[in-house]
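Session log. Operator J.P. requested a structure for one protein chain; no other inputs attached. Running the standard single-chain path with token output.
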Amino acid sequence: MSSAARIVIGLVIGALVGAGAFVAWGQIGSDAGPVAAATTSTTLPPIVEEAPWVDGGSRFRTTVIVPQAFVVNGTAANLEFEIVPLTPGLDGDDDGDDRLTPIHTVVRPERWQLELADGTVIEGETDSDDLRLSFELPEGTARTDITELRIVTWRYAAPLGSTVELAVEPDSTGTFDDGTVVTIETVLAQANSTIVRLTVEHPDDSWHGASSFGIAAADPGWRRSGGPALGSELQFIRDGGGTPHAIVLFQDHPAWMPLAEELVVDLGGGA
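Structure written below.
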């Protein structure tokens, strides 16, 4: 066989071997199934909202009662405390101080009990804005005679709205659901408008929240006049001639609802 023939045969064999290897690789690839596409993910840093740090105290739902001072002088036990809401940034301040007065919280203590070692229970009560409380003690009572301080009832804020309809005439009176009384004092009818002045009498209740008032009637002619719709006097004007027969007022305010649930207050090792 000539050298030229050997070269031709070598080339043919090389081509056959290369083709076989390609077919085998393709078969392996098809058996293994499709190759999954590469994926990437991005991890975002968590958003951290700092809650107020509370040193000591006793937690009730989202509120902490923190005693500041508890002094027993033999005839009385005097308590000073803070109410701290566990709500970040509730006051909207940037100074980092989240310790708020009770007006900012939605749960406040009302009735308290102080128990002595002999089983005597002494009652106490706080109003909506109180941060101090005093218990009258039997003469000679020492701090070591006090076994427990607890809160037995609370108040929580809930929105409340109600309406009254008044005849547009002097001395017409209506009472809202919370006991607030409104009375029309004067009706001034003019050629192009009617002015109605009212007085407001709020119930004698320390837990009664501030109220706002407005017109609930569908009559678009009514509008409030003068200062803010708060306090003890209101004035409304109806544009257009003729005296209307009635005016419908609405009242909106927070109602402090009672809640009976017991919490033992930590006095820091004293009781």
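Operator note: The first helix runs from residue 3 to 32.
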